[in-house]
Write a structure and sequence with these properties.
Chain B: This is DUF4843 domain-containing protein. The structure holds 2 protein chains of 2 kinds. Chain A starts with a strand and ends in a 5-residue tail after the last strand. Chain A is mainly β. Chain A has helices at about 60-65, 70-80, 125-135, 235-245, 310-315; strands spanning about 5-10, 40, 50-55, 85-100, 110-125, 145, 150-165, 170-190, 195-200, 210-220, 250-260, 265-280, 285-295, 320-325, 325-330, 335-345, 360-375, 380-390, 395-405, 410-420, 420-430, 440-445, 445-455. In chain A, about 10% of the residues lie in helices and about 50% in strands. Chain A is built from 5 helices and 23 strands. In chain A, strand 18 and strand 19 form a beta hairpin. Chain A is elongated and about 100 Å long. The longest helix of chain A is centred in the N-terminal third of the chain and has 11 residues, at about 70-80. Chain B has one domain (about 35-180): Sandwich (Jelly Rolls). Chain B is built from 3 helices and 11 strands; from the N terminus they run H-E-E-E-E-H-E-E-E-E-E-H-E-E. Chain B has helices at about 1-20, 75-80, 140-145; strands spanning about 40-50, 55, 60, 65-70, 80-95, 100-105, 110-120, 130, 135, 150-155, 170-180. In chain B, strands 1, 5, 8, 9 and 11 form a 5-stranded antiparallel beta sheet that branches. In chain B, strands 4-10-6-7 form a 4-stranded antiparallel beta sheet, with helices on one face. In chain B, a hairpin with a 2-residue loop joins strand 2 and strand 3 (about 60). The chains are: A mainly beta, B alpha+beta.
């Protein structure tokens, strides 16, 4: 049985969320009202695909072949960005997944499991340090260049997970998932502070008061050995190996709920990746901490004191320290919730609906979803309005309109169809931007093929 | 249905990779054009000498001299990317004597590479702040500057009304450097 799984999306999977004809919906809500006798998906694609999102500029802004000097483009982007703007890459590849019903024929308890590989990169625009590097300080007397603008994290990890969900009654579905993380490489520099300032103060002997106050820290795990001169390996291979076999271990949990307030009014919520990684393999932390005040080369004409070296002063005031202590990183935790109102009862395909207990099917659903994710600065929040339509009994369509910090006009379209036992789905985000992808601020898509044996076929 | 979606897969893949690879619209080689041209200002040197320091037990000391290490140009990155420098000097004299100030750019073996001379008029009761023309370092002069490892300050007092330990007034120097970098 052909089974294909390629996932590529922004962290917010608004199309997949609560799209319950797709088994993977339980990855974003372990309490989703998903049912099957069993299903599985075996990956065959080894290629890597990625999603890129950037809130203040696009690839076109930077790399367009339009005759504008590259340095001007960089300057424009920096000027038009704030330190809250960010660039993000997220890539996931499902290695395998599956699920099955447990208990007897009337049971509504399910176990699902799988493994995926994930790459995460998040960087805020380092606005002040970028201006300092582009322009220097001459035109910025009185400004304190904020070193807290340096805020970046990156991680490659694999995730092994097992989930369980149970439909307790007609109204309530509860679920949870345990995750084992194995992080092959991590770099985190998110707790920086300090400033570089040049000011002119009346009453001081020097022309300028120049202060560098630095509290910079870069923590890495699984990376230090690649930076050594004697390293002669293949970085990609070694990171891949570490990710699956020799990573820093961590634990996490997902939990979720679906509740039918009425038969056609549904509420859901989930929390995903509430967990941590204990970064313990090949850890190295580099810090630059201290305060330095630059006064210049100042003679005192008394011959008694030995002149000091400015650079030596600087290096002893703000030394580079290397530490080898383990550290803990928290996974970016995601929160989802949704409200859905269904309407338009379907006429059964059968001439006679003989099962008295048959559940009503609705053709249409509208609702809203809220997504939030922890970030080093402010949490990322997105609001989605959606419309779902059951075109045929085994063909479902979902359209979303999402507002977040990347875009206020993100329209997404998704289709999930089942032919026999084969479920195929395709979810495409930001469809308006596909006319010119290079100008898109974010792009995401996802598709997959599952083999599903539905519940009714015993 | 299945065929329809399978037909889409290559399209979607192309869309995704257009984002990362060269297309007719985008030229990633522009990264090589990146050239940073920051301009930094920094303190260069200051001193504040009281009139009394030019007298030792009743004897006038007409010459004061001191050197300071100046190791900025030992940094290769700074040396390689510096394309121009400007020094600005400002002297305030409230001592009743005139001075000359020689700022000497010295190398490791104490050879004088360049001398910057500033004449300072005597204080006559009115404001006596002199801003000297900007010293610009380009091409050959810049090359000499880059060999500088020490700065010497030679203050010579001209003749005039006698001064002693209790004389009033100060000779003050303030100066700054403006450095033009080009980093590729």
């Amino acid at each position: 049985m052909l089974s294909l799984q390629l996932v590529c999306f922004a962290q917010n999977r608004q199309l997949l969320y609560n799209f319950t004809s797709i088994p993977q919906a339980s990855l974003v809500n372990p309490g989703a009202d998903v049912s099957y006798k069993y299903y599985f998906g075996i990956p065959v694609l080894s290629g890597i695909s990625a999603n890129v999102g950037s809130s203040s500029f696009s690839a076109y802004d930077l790399f367009a072949k339009n005759g504008i000097d590259f340095n001007d483009k960089v300057r424009n982007i920096v000027n038009n960005s704030s330190n809250k703007d960010k660039a993000q890459v997220n890539e996931q590849l499902e290695l395998f997944s599956g699920g099955f019903r447990v208990g007897g024929e009337d049971s509504q308890s399910y176990i699902s499991f799988g493994a995926y590989q994930e790459f995460d990169f998040l960087m805020y625009v380092p606005k002040d340090p970028a201006i300092f590097a582009l322009d220097g300080n001459r035109d910025y007397i009185g400004k304190a260049f904020n070193l807290a603008d340096i805020n970046v994290r990156a991680e490659v990890l694999s995730v092994l997970h097992v989930g369980f969900h149970k439909k307790l009654n007609e109204k309530l579905v509860l679920g949870g998932r345990a995750k084992l993380y194995s992080s092959g490489a991590n770099a985190t520099s998110t707790r920086n502070s300090g400033f570089i300032s040049t000011t002119q103060n009346a009453g001081t002997p020097n022309l300028y008061t120049q202060i560098i106050s630095s509290n910079l820290e870069l923590r890495t795990s699984g990376i230090a050995k690649f930076t050594k001169d004697e390293y002669e390996g293949n970085v990609a291979e070694d990171i891949a190996h570490n990710t699956f076999f020799n990573g820093s271990m961590g634990l996490g949990f997902d939990a979720g709920i679906t509740y039918y307030y009425r038969e056609n009014l549904q509420f859901t919520a989930s929390i995903i990746d509430l967990g941590f990684v204990n970064q313990s393999k090949d850890v190295e932390t580099i810090t630059y901490k201290g305060t330095y005040r630059y006064e210049g080369a100042n003679p005192i004409f008394d011959f008694t004191n030995k002149p000091a070296d400015v650079f030596d002063d600087f290096e002893s005031a703000i030394p580079r320290d290397t530490l080898y202590t383990k550290y803990t990183t928290w996974r970016p935790t995601k929160l989802y919730s949704s409200v859905q109102y269904s309407f338009g009862e379907s006429r059964s395909d059968d001439e006679c609906n003989c099962k008295a207990s048959a559940k009503k099917r609705y053709l249409n659903a509208v609702g809203g979803q809220l997504f939030a994710m922890t970030m080093p600065n402010e949490p990322f929040v997105a609001f989605t309005a959606f419309y779902k339509r059951s075109i045929f009994e085994k063909l479902d369509f979902k359209a979303t309109y999402t507002i977040d910090s990347y875009s206020s006009k993100n329209i997404g379209l998704g289709l999930s169809g089942t032919i026999g036992k084969v479920n195929i789905y395709a979810l495409v985000d930001n469809v308006l931007e596909y006319r010119d992808v290079s100008k898109a601020s974010s792009v995401a898509f996802q598709f997959g093929i599952n083999f599903i044996v539905p519940e009714s076929e015993d | 249905m299945k065929a329809n979606i399978l037909n889409r897969i290559p399209k979607i893949l192309v869309f995704a990779f257009v984002f990362f690879s060269c297309s007719s619209d985008l030229d990633f080689d522009q990264v090589n054009d990146l050239k940073l041209k920051p301009v930094f200002v920094a303190n260069l040197a200051y001193f504040n000498v009281a009139a009394g320091q030019f007298s030792d037990a009743g004897t006038e000391q007409k010459i004061a001299f001191d050197t300071r290490d100046f190791d900025a140009f030992k940094d290769k990155f700074f040396r390689d990317n510096l394309v121009k420098a400007e020094f600005n000097f400002e002297v305030e004299n409230t001592i009743v004597r005139a001075f000359t100030l020689d700022v000497l750019l010295l190398n490791d073996s104490d050879q004088v590479l360049q001398t910057l001379r500033f004449t300072v008029p005597a204080y006559t009761g009115s404001s006596n702040v002199i801003k000297y023309p900007t010293e610009v370092f380009e091409s050959q002069r810049l090359a000499l500057l880059k060999q500088t490892t020490k700065i010497g300050f030679l203050v010579k007092m001209a003749s005039g009304p006698p001064i002693n330990e209790d004389s009033l007034g100060n000779l003050k120097l303030r100066s700054s450097a403006t450095v033009y970098m080009e980093i590729e």
